[in-house]
What we know:
This protein is an alpha/beta fold. The protein folds into three domains: 54-209, 3-Layer(aba) Sandwich (Rossmann fold), CATH 3.40.50; 216-361, Rossmann fold; 371-559, Glucose-6-phosphate isomerase like protein, domain 1 (Rossmann fold). It has 21 helices and 15 strands. The protein has helices spanning 10-21, 32-39, 48-53, 55-67, 83-91, 109-118, 136-150, 169-176, 198-206, 211-224, 235-247, 265-277, 319-327, 343-361, 371-388, 409-412, 418-428, 445-462, 479-484, 512-529, 543-559; strands at 72-76, 100-104, 124-129, 160-164, 181-184, 253-258, 285-288, 302-309, 332-337, 396-397, 404-407, 434-439, 465-468, 489-496, 533-539. The strands form three sheets. The chain has a six-stranded mixed β-sheet, sandwiched between helices. Strands 2-1-3-4-5 form a five-stranded parallel β-sheet, sandwiched between helices.
Amino acid sequence: MFYRPSYITTAEKNAILKRFWDKDPSLWSIDQEMQQPIKNRLGWLDVLPKMMEAKAHLTGFAEEIKEMGITKVVVLGMGGSSLTSIVLKEVFGPEKGYPDLKILDTTDPDEVERLALENAWDRTLFLVASKSGTTIEPNAQLNYLWSLLESSIPDPGSHFAAITDPGTPLEHLATKKNFLKVFLNPPDVGGRYAALSYFGLVPAAILGLDLDLIFSKAWDMINKCGPSIPWGQNPACRLSEFLADYSLQNKDKLTVLADQKIKPFGLWLEQLIAESTGKETRGIVPIVGETTGIPGFYGGERAFAYLKLKETPQEESFDGFLDELKKAQFPVYELSLADIYDIWGQFFLWEMAVAIASHFLDVNAFNEPDVRSSKEKTKKVLDTYKAQGKMPITFWIDPQSQFQFRPSGMLADSMKGLVRAIRDIFQVLPSWGYLAFLPFLPYDKEVDEIIGEMRHLARQEHGCATTLGFGPRYLHSTGQIHKGGPMSAAFLIFTRKRMKDYPDIPDLGVSFWHLQFAQALGDFEALSEANRRVIHVHLPGDYILGLRSFSKLFSRAVRL
């Protein structure tokens, strides 16, 4: 039974803190069968000393690849295996003389093709990051890129490294193919709680970051949040209480604000919150990347968290906006970072806070029960395509715009066109709900901008929160809360027409376009099965032109 932390005594809160550091799995489930899997996901609490002991291993690897003449390292991974790398690349970048870092966390055929056309294989290292070693996206990327290197250089294995758990198929493959290095991560560290393990520290070493300073910042925060620090003085406990208390008061849309230099941290935080808390029709919905607005346009379900970097000029900070929010009586939580290396403390702070908040929400912070459904349905779509030679889908044609689209069963009864479908979404979407934009498209600044305009319009006209997640990345970050979290949500999935033939992925028998499209279809089916309102819009090959046309149609619909 969930309960608000403000309703219990300080002694009871301190007892929860003790149980947390004792790794008591009953904090998250009283089901005996669930408790052992939870125990197997709590290694992040004491992983840092192991990483400190591995410092020479990490720096030695970084120096080795520099001596090889490697100028670019490409991380092949998804979700918790790649999001820390994205933060490090965007916030820190490489130190002088160290390789650039690129993250390929998509199956988009144009993104993969752009990487393939760079073709500087002798100066490139591929870092395959996968806890299970069975994730379809990095495995497809690995198979495809291996085939390119195999025909171009004499020893392709020397241009691959891996981070994975012991005994996984990826470890066996890396040994068989003679990878340059394999980092075996502690198996009791889950993906979204892995920032202070090899999944975060190998990329940090590659970029030439100061590992001693990283360890110092992280260790300082761990000590501040330790079992001997009472609840009221414990930063993670105070943050967890804020998250849980307001979420249980129906202020479950946590809007994350961060100063420009550390803004990418929001992507990592989005996954941590959504996958940990979004279960059993409840959870904290992270709102990341939204433009700010007049407080009166925000629904009453909002809470705000602000990560403030000390070096940010006053005129570029959110201080003035926060003053307006406080005057409008929105709950606001402020966190101050002295410098960008404080991010390493923030990784642990938020991991602990979200885990404890999940206890109050009465959900298991360490599983992702609804992620599997999209994977299974994607496989079924691909199997059907291979057997029949066509995708198992029939689109409707909007009589006015000629857009190809289809609605979920929750919308089909009132369907008379695409404008009507969008209007119907907003007629049933409560002000405390949210609308998720889910483009299975390349990472394109224009896509961000166009959808950003639609997000702004939805909030201004209807007061609802909005999110943006590129597919298939979001399947490994917010996909869990989409299907397992609050029911008050609606979804717009975008795909685009295939304009040319792409090569098949070795051992998979389909191209990246087919894989990405199948993932979109699979998630549409999973969302529909979970009784969510969802519209799938199939754009033309010129997806920017198509998305701009859709935005005009969307604008008309939301104003009706």
